[in-house]
Amino acid sequence: MTILVIAEHSNDHLSDATAKTVSAATKIGGDIHVLVAGSGASAVAGQAAKIAGVAKVLHADDDHYAKQLAEPMAELILSLAGDYDVLMAPAGTDGKNYMPRVAAKLDVMQISDIIAVESADTFQRPIYAGNAIATVQSSDAKKVITVRGTAFEAPAMDGSASVETIGAADFPSISEFVKEELTKSDRPELQGAKIVISGGRALASGENFEKYIYPVADKLGAAVGASRAAVDAGYVPNDMQVGQTGKVVAPELYIAVGISGAIQHLAGMKDSKVIVAINKDEEAPIFQVADYGLVADLFEAMPELEKAL
Amino acid sequence: MKVLVPVKRVIDYNVKVRVKPDQSDVDLANVKMSMNPFDEIAVEEAVRMKEAGTVEEVIAVSIGPEKAQDQLRQALAMGADRAILIETTETVEPLSVAKLLAKVCEEENPDLVVMGKQAIDDDCNQTGQMLAALMGWPQGTFASAVTKEGDKLHVTREVDGGLQTIALTLPAVVTTDLRLNEPRYASLPNIMKAKKKPLDKKSPSDYGVEIIARLKTLKVTEPPKREAGIKVESVADLVEKLKNEAGVL
Ligand SMILES: Cc1cc2nc3c(=O)[nH]c(=O)nc-3n(C[C@H](O)[C@H](O)[C@H](O)COP(=O)(O)OP(=O)(O)OC[C@H]3O[C@@H](n4cnc5c(N)ncnc54)[C@H](O)[C@@H]3O)c2cc1C
Ligand SMILES: Nc1ncnc2c1ncn2[C@@H]1O[C@H](COP(=O)(O)O)[C@@H](O)[C@H]1O
């Protein structure tokens, strides 16, 4: 069995989810290679070489890979696919974008967002917003898989794989990068953070996130998330949405503030180790999954919490 | 331009599904079904393009049971011009859906396909990307804004780090994210009018696509259940518990 893991990165930093995807690959077993396709991304290739269990890193460097656009990425992965039995990527917005493109070209059904490996062809994945877990067996000769990072342990970073430079593949001239607006924050990344504090519709404004959520987050060294309602209302940017169709997090501690606990939100946080809910409605469904519930007005409780920490 | 909008009949997003006791599947008997929410957003976007004059015709297509007509009628009531139902009682995986949609694209030659990023039942998030691949078209996934700029389509995408805008040649596939628009409710007169709009019925074999499942579901189980914990009396109590009981602070 040979497995290719496609790295998720920002050209200078490899994502934690990539390392966790290697953990999932280790569970399948076999020779594991990592593909780093980027622009000026040799540091990333170096980081990938340190992931325990990786035998070789393939590094393709070209401007066309700078923004991970689906069309050139899929061409590159397809040019390598012949040598591999399994192609895997983290289920972030990059992997979700190019992997199904690869799968369709290989005439393979992608196995999306796996949370467990039962054997080389059998996997578990959540369906219906995580209200059910399906165990599925793939009959495809080649497997294309995306991996939910939060479901796998981070591997040790004591490896020393070789790094091999490879050439670029074709660049289809059908798509191009125009611009990006990346959210800048000094707080930890949502998906890697040990503590996440999320705000919901009850915050009522972006200013209130500044006033009531961020100070507590900073005291705790926590990442900040949000419900869909808070994002839709424009209080915070889209990349902070936690849930079925946003980001999935599983920190040591998740604090939900003024969030009702709709199934779509729970889908993104109910695997957190300890859940705290602060809500003024004692009937709010969030309390059904919370280890510690505080029935209170957040506008009073949050300043108190900030002081108590 | 001509736009194709695939819509899927799925469990209503308000319903919490239950797993069948024999673990063969979830129980969908007597459960409310609706149009996949992301597909409503797709229909809305196509209809708005038509209202803005960039699009002449909007065609809704669904692959599913006879009942999926309800969702197609809803798309028609929202403003789609005609509909195609590819009827089958089987579960059709995204790869087969993409193959059927590719055949429809070959027949209809749309300039654009707008569809949901994710069906809220299988949570696969792959059909649009697969269709784009099969057609050799570019893809703008997780769209929060779509504008026509000359002969290109600019798509702003919701990505993990924020927003990314790309330019695509046409034809292209766009998949919708939550912030693209807020779908309208169909008015009663429009619901009545929709009943008279054309709805073609086809079968997968009309398109020469054989529905073969590549993934076999061995079982469907309940996720580990979380027990509700305790209510704390005060912020001080909470901090004390998090420090000394849970050990997370
Ligand atoms: C297709 C689809 C996908 C979706 N994906 C997601 C997703 O990924 N993530 C997500 O989060 N949602 C998602 N949703 C939306 C979800 O269904 C809910 O609408 C949303 O999570 C509600 O957000 P909320 O809890 O902030 O708001 P509400 O449900 O309005 O809850 C606000 C809560 O705040 C409490 N409150 C009010 N004032 C105060 C106060 N002063 N102090 C304390 N508490 C107070 C109220 O009691 C209430 O419980 C999705 C929906 C659809 C249809
Ligand atoms: N059976 C179907 N009929 C029509 N459209 C579908 C069907 N299945 C999936 N789609 C489309 O593909 C999108 C993504 O679905 P999925 O890849 O299953 O998450 C949906 O939002 C629909 O737009």
TrEMBL record, chain A:
One of its GO terms (molecular function) is flavin adenine dinucleotide binding. Its cofactor is FAD. The keyword Flavoprotein applies. The keyword Oxidoreductase does not apply. FAD binds at residues 201, 227-228, 241-245, 258-265, 279. GO terms for biological process: fatty acid beta-oxidation using acyl-CoA dehydrogenase. Binds 1 FAD per dimer. Residues 3-181 form the Electron transfer flavoprotein alpha/beta-subunit N-terminal domain. Pfam families: ETF (PF01012), ETF_alpha (PF00766). Keywords: Electron transport, FAD, Flavoprotein, Transport. Belongs to the ETF alpha-subunit/FixB family. The electron transfer flavoprotein serves as a specific electron acceptor for other dehydrogenases. It transfers the electrons to the main respiratory chain via ETF-ubiquinone oxidoreductase (ETF dehydrogenase). Heterodimer of an alpha and a beta subunit. This is Electron transfer flavoprotein subunit alpha. It comes from Aquisalinus flavus.
From TrEMBL, chain B:
The keyword Phosphoprotein does not apply. The keyword Lyase does not apply. GO terms for biological process: carboxylic acid catabolic process. Its cofactor is AMP. Keywords: Electron transport, Transport. Pfam families: ETF. CDD domains: ETF_beta (cd01714). It comes from the Bacteria. Residues 23-211 form the Electron transfer flavoprotein alpha/beta-subunit N-terminal domain. One of its GO terms (molecular function) is electron transfer activity. The electron transfer flavoprotein serves as a specific electron acceptor for other dehydrogenases. It transfers the electrons to the main respiratory chain via ETF-ubiquinone oxidoreductase (ETF dehydrogenase). Heterodimer of an alpha and a beta subunit. Belongs to the ETF beta-subunit/FixA family. PANTHER family: ELECTRON TRANSFER FLAVOPROTEIN BETA-SUBUNIT, ELECTRON TRANSFER FLAVOPROTEIN SUBUNIT BETA. This is Electron transfer flavoprotein subunit beta. The lineage of its organism: Bacteria, Pseudomonadati, Pseudomonadota, Alphaproteobacteria, Parvularculales. The gene is etfB.
